[in-house]
Amino acid sequence: MTTARATGDRTTTGPARERRLRIRPLRSWTLRSRVVLVVVAMLAVLGAVIGTISVFALQGFLVQRLDSQLTSAVERGQRAANQIYGTTPTGSDVTRIVATPGQPVGTFGIVRSGTTLLYPVILPPRPDATSPNGPVAPKQVTIQTEALYTLPADGKPRTVNLGPSLGDYRVAAAELANGDSVIIGLPLAEVNATVNQLTLVVALVTLAGLVFAFLIASFVVRLAMRPLERVAGTAQEVAEMPLDRGDVALSVRVPEEDTDPHTEVGKVGAALNRMLGHVASALTARQASEQKVRQFVADASHELRTPLASIRGYAELTRRSPHDLPRDVTHSLHRIESEATRMTSLVEDLLLLARLDEGRELDRDPVDLSMMLVDAMSDAHAAGRDHVWSMVLPDEPVEVVGDRARLQQVVVNLLANARVHTPDGTKVVAALAEDREAGRATITVTDNGPGIPPELQSTLFERFARGDGSRARTTGSTGLGLAIVHAVVEAHGGEVTVTSEPGETVFAVSLPLGPVAPEAEPAESTAEIGDRTA
């Protein structure tokens, strides 16, 4: 399986690969990354501008100096040609023009007579081999250009490429006394080499500067962002605190050094501290109000138990007296006794919830969930004979540590909820499972009734929450049964969940296992409630 997944990853193409390679938009980058990017980009643009100006400035200076040398070379060549030829036709000794004393090494010379170029020569960079200590002897070369045919004889330097072997030259033409034109040129090789070298140096220095600037900017920005990170850490710590219930001690604050009102981060830190102070005050007030309500409910429930018991007792005593009572009086006494019983149940539920809210310790004894589930199912079967009841139990007992009476109430409430809110003939299955690796025991109550509407499932475990007509009630309901289930299970360190759709509603209670020795995993068996209780 691992190989198949790896092969699939390597061969993934199309939109999936494009999504993985897509760069995140700039707005989703961290502030640190954006600041470093802006700094490096600005330095890159600045380096490019300075480098470009430097290269062009140097190139202009070198070309201008070369043009000055070229102007002098043209004047020397023009004087030499006029001295040699005068007004007579140009001869083959053009080399004497290029070899005139003072001409730089690499000087190019040629005479243009009408539409003909005569005797192109160049002054080589070293003496002839036949006269190593003598003067430099020009040599004839081959040029490949047509630009010299139309070059104006005005003495102004121009750039001309003389072919692959000679490259670029700055050339200028001057008119001779005999009507021909002498063209003198100086090579641009040294100028181009110097400019190229400067370009390379500027590029390398700029690149090194950008790398150095990136490292320095990253360090400085990280250092500058530490106060903001501490503020964000404080906000994250507060966000992870359970603020929705209980006594919240909101003592987390931004450190004093990060609340300087003269800095932007300090302003944020100070504002966050003020907000946390307001939130802490609100939570304290909420907790005090909730505590008052809990205390009132607990006190009221406790105080109502005795009067309700008296009402029930007197009603029952009067109803069972030997005196003949009118039928309507007997009915009224029966209703008084019934409502007093219902009110007593409601008061007991409210008192239990109030005690759980106060965090009172529950009993911590070993509880056999298997036997507890059998007892609860027997009671449910007796109370709802119009339903089909069944159980799924492991062969070995499952024990947890907790309050048996409260856990018994959890199971009873879940079974009563399935019985009351489903029509006759509904099948209800209570199952118990054990996961020793996870250290959990799970009780599930499943029915095939009409289900719970999705909009009610999120509030199902709240107090006084009731379903609608889709799970019609045949008897009254206080809306506290599932709230008690939730409170008791949480007090035992467990959790309760519900999943429902038409035809299947499942309540699952997960509890931590008790400290029992590990045994072999038992097989499960299914039996009807009648077989279990026979």
Q: Secondary structure elements and their pairing?
A:
Layout lengths: L1 H9 L4 H7 L9 H55 L9 H4 L9 E6 L2 E7 L16 E2 L17 E4 L6 E8 L5 E7 L1 H51 L24 H56 L7 H31 L7 E4 H15 L4 E7 L4 E4 L1 H17 L6 E9 L4 E8 L6 H4 L23 H11 L3 E7 L2 E9 L11 E5 H4 L2
Parallel strand pairs: 8-10
Antiparallel strand pairs: 1-2, 1-6, 2-3, 4-5, 5-6, 7-9, 8-14, 10-11, 11-13, 12-13
Helix pairs in contact: 3-5, 5-6, 6-7, 7-11, 8-9, 9-11
Can I get a quick summary?
The chain is α+β, with helices and mostly antiparallel strands and 534 residues long. It is built from 12 helices and 14 strands. The strands form 3 sheets. A 6-stranded antiparallel beta sheet has the order 3-2-1-6-5-4.
Shape: rod-shaped
For the secondary structure, the number of strands is: 14
**Termini, distance in Å?**
50 Å
- In terms of per-residue confidence, which ranges show pLDDT below 50 for 5 or more consecutive residues? 1-14, 126-134, 468-475, 516-534
In N-to-C order, the SSE pattern is: HHHHEEEEEEHHHEHEEHEEHHEEEH
Which structural category do the helix and sheet elements fall into?
alpha+beta
- Estimate what percentage of residues fall within beta strands: 15-25%
Q: Write down the overall mean pLDDT.
A: 79
Rg from Cα: 51 Å
